[in-house]
Amino acid sequence: MSAANVVQLPTRVASKAFELEPLLIGAALHLRAKHQVFEVISLVGDEFAGELHRKAWQIARARAERNLEVSAAEVFAAGLRKAWFQGEERQALERLEAANMLDAGAFIRVARDFRNIIEGQRFVQSLEAAVLRVRQRGFDPATEAGWLSGVERSLHAHTAKLEPLTVEQEKFLSKWESNEQSGKLAYLPTGIRVLDEAIGGLPRSLTLIVADAGVGKTAFQDSLLHALLVTNVGIKAALISPEDGTQHVVKRWMARDMGWVLRDVGSRKRNPIEEELSLSVAKSHYPLLERVLGYTQRNITADKLISTLWQAADAGAEAASIDNFNKLNISGLPGEYPERVQRFSDRLQEFSEKSGVAAIMLAHSTDDVTSRKQVSGSAGVQGGKSLGRDARLRLDLYQKDHELRCVIAKANELGEQGTVLQFHRLREAGLIDPEKGFPVDVKGEEAAEQERAADARLARQMALTRKRKKLIAQEKAATEDARAEAEAQASLFDAEKQAAVEKPKSFGMRWATPKSPEDSHDPE
């Protein structure tokens, strides 16, 4: 279709829609349309071009919502009270009511035709805007891909219809058989034993990995990539990393296989033996790294991200990891921030489910995982609840006793929500050992910790009691010692006093008792 034809189309569409407006108003008034009929038709007054038609439909729908009668007389009276009508509108409404030839079924069919015409008009106007945008700014595949995705969602929303579930059963069985024949698994095994035992693998939809900064999201991602590639022979994966680039994958894998700490890889001076070892390790990693498609530009928009993901899917990738949401630019999407996040989340989920690629999004946590009173699949993630609601799988990472753990915060049919897994972390690179790890009995662990804490409190109390008793005994002994010393001093004083009384006359003063008269001798 040429640009000229696109420009001419809205006029014809608008004209056709205007012709149907009187039929709809007349049918609504004559049939005394009820609230459920207006709900099925799903038209609002602003979609009518004629002023009388627009006001009459708005009043009729409002009266139906309140279970009031919808007729020409009642609608006119309501419009008169609103000062929308002057007087001559009554005859026009009565003529439309009297001229109605539609029954209830025909009324709904004409309304649907009217809606399709209106939607067609909007679609053509959107095409005009797209043509003008391309002419003025040039063709940007990422931008146009985002626009087309939005148009597709809108069209699907208006073409959706009720069907018996047997249709879905046939689709499900057909897809199952197709996957069996092609060897494509519904869930992609992660290669991390304890994780696969808990959830069966990654869904071919959106997976969210949430953790606070520094916990180990990127290291977990690098471990997951390696395990995926080793377990699923021949598949490709994509790594879109506007935050840390992609070189950390090379460094961590080398650090693990060389037995070096991560900081020494690429910085420490090697001796000949170490140089030979590093080259040998690098050579062994080449077949795996060749199957990882990397994207490292710092600033990536939502449109560019979705476009890049489709390129990865076309190149054969079955898993794609995005590190992380914090570095994604969604400012170009319409609406306020929460609405932009929701739009992006919808598009990411749509890509994953259409392409069959397991999309993994890393995101920062906004709270402490261990402090939550209950497990939540949507709360506590940067960007709001949209990502959590749309994800099929969500893993919340945290550290305990220098080991990495994850809470399965959301798993749908994959596993049990709230399951906690502990991984074995390798010292050299922070990667996890895919063969080690175990599910954690959190309640049992908490009970054991509470018991240990109670034992520790009891031990402290007993120690304090023993110390208190010891102090009391010491105080008692000191008191007895003081009393004994006081008694000894008193005895010594008494002895000294007695000795002083018994001193001979030659020693100065002495104590003497008076003599009796018989003992005195008068010389005369």
UniProtKB/TrEMBL annotation:
Gene3D superfamilies: P-loop containing nucleotide triphosphate hydrolases. Coiled coil: none annotated. Residues 474-524 are annotated as: Disordered. Residues 189-370 form the KaiC-like domain. InterPro entries: KaiC-like_dom, P-loop_NTPase. Residues 477-486, 494-505 have a biased composition (Basic and acidic residues). Pfam families: ATPase. This is KaiC-like domain-containing protein.
